[in-house]
Specification:
about 280 residues; 14 strands
């Protein structure tokens, strides 16, 4: 489920509480829109950031690896839909940020754009309230956390924290930023109602609009959870190719997860989502 890799990532969300409920009507609007055929592919037209009406989303980075900031930024913003909204994000280095605050230079704390380039004169402390942390750890640290719900020690996302390797960074960003659930088949996968999960007994899938338009396969895909030789899984998933599956060969966020990420960006920044 989690492979041995060279970099570990801890994601901590600050002040990013997801809405407790989302109605089926909201899902219908999201999934019923007529998107261009290539809408969910990487490399789409960037969404314009208007500083007079939009808020930035900050990422505070603590880097304990040999990767440069630009390499870390590339890992985050290489995939759809984050590539189209990359101008809505900025980066700060935690050590610099703390030093600037200690020196009372909060009017111009150092900051970097989505590519890792320094932003001239930095940004005020108030910019991007509700940012989240990315802490990159060397593989040799091998830090894990205790899963409080089942009392076992695993490398996973638990609440606000995610210990994860390089091949799963986008998987954990999906958890931490957009509240997406695990889509892989395992009894230890996250077990809660989320936008990218559907009850197996649902009469009509909430993402059926995307199926009708050919963006998702026209079949029910079960998330199997074999316990004692019996499949006790409760959920269906949108696609077998999605970072939330956490497979080594996943190369995208599926359309359902992409729309959830766009929804979260819209909520934090104030940008109008494409289905409105």
């Amino acid at each position: 489920m989690f492979t041995s890799i060279r970099i570990f990532l801890v994601i901590t969300i600050l002040l990013l509480s997801l809405p407790s409920e989302q109605t089926l009507a909201q899902y219908n609007g999201r999934y019923a829109s007529r998107y261009p055929e290539d809408f969910f592919n990487p490399g789409g037209t960037e969404v314009n950031f208007n500083p007079s009406i939009h808020q930035k989303i900050g990422i505070l980075i603590q880097n304990r690896t040999r990767l440069s900031l630009s390499e870390i930024a590339h890992m985050i913003f290489k995939t759809a839909p984050l590539d189209r909204y990359k101008r809505f994000f900025y980066l700060r280095i935690e050590e610099e940020f703390r030093e600037d605050i200690a020196n009372n230079t909060i009017l111009s704390t150092r900051a970097y754009d989505y590519s890792g380039r320094a932003i001239p004169r930095g940004l005020p402390l108030s910019e991007g309230q509700g940012s989240f942390n990315l802490v990159f750890l060397r593989f040799s640290l091998r830090e894990v956390i205790r899963c409080s719900c089942k009392g076992v020690t695993i490398q996973t996302n638990q609440g606000n924290f995610a210990y994860v390797g390089e091949d799963s960074i986008l998987h954990e960003v999906g958890h931490a930023f957009a509240g997406l659930a695990d889509e892989y088949s395992d009894p230890r996968a996250s077990d809660f109602t989320a936008v990218n999960l559907e009850d197996r007994h649902a009469h009509k899938l909430k993402w059926s609009g995307l199926i009708e338009k050919g963006f998702l396969p026209n079949r029910k895909i079960e998330r199997r959870e074999i316990v004692g030789g019996i499949d006790r899984g409760r959920f269906l998933i949108p696609s077998n190719n999605c970072y939330m599956n956490n497979h080594q060969n996943d190369d995208r966020y599926c359309p359902v997860c992409q729309l959830a990420i766009i929804s979260r960006i819209s909520q934090l920044s104030g940008v109008t989502p494409p289905w409105q």
